[in-house]
Amino acid sequence: MMSENNYNDEKYFDENCIFCKIVEKQIPADIVYEDEYTIAFKDLQPKATIHLLVIPKVHMKDIIEVDEYYMSKVHSSIKNIVEQLGLAEKGFRVISNCGAGAGQSVWHFHFHLLSGKYERFDNH
Ligand code: 5GP
Ligand code: ZN
After folding, report:
1. Which CATH superfamily includes the segment(s) 4-118?
2. Residues with beta carbon < 5 A to ion ligand 2?
3. What distance in Å separates the CA atoms of residue 103 and residue 28, rounded to the nearest whole number?
4. pLDDT for 14-25, tens place per residue?
5. pTM score of the predicted model
C-alpha cells in the first residue's frame, strides 16, 4: 500500500511530545522493537508483566487521527512483537485510550500491548 502523504512534513513531529522525543532518541526508552515506521518500548509504569507501547514514528494524536497507512504499520509491528516474544500462547491485550475521559495522557497515538499478570487498567 503506497502512501500519498509526505510524512517528513513538520506537522508529523511535535517537539513537545515525549513519544516524538523517544522516536528521535532524544530521551531514553527501553526499546524492544523498531522498524522504519514504528517503535515499541516498555511502559515506564507497567500494569502487567509485559507492558509495551507500540507507536508510529509520526505524530498523530490518537486512534481517530492516525491514518490507515500507519495503522497497518502498527498492526504489523504488533504481530511481529507477538511472534518474537511468544505472546500468542500466553495471550495478550491491545488497548488504546482515546481522550482524557478514557485515560489518555500522552497525545501521540499508541497501543498498549499487555501480557502476563495484569493490574487494574481502567482509568489509570
Ligand atoms: P495513556 O495514558 O496515554 O493511555 O498511556 C501513556 C502511557 O505512557 C502511560 O502508561 C505511561 O506510563 C507511559 N509513559 C509516559 N511517559 C513515558 C515515558 O517517558 N517513557 C515511557 N517508557 N513510558 C511513558
Ligand atoms: Zn508525538
Report:
1. HIT-like (3.30.428.10)
2. 14, 17, 19-20, 59, 108
3. 24
4. 999 999 999 999
5. 0.95
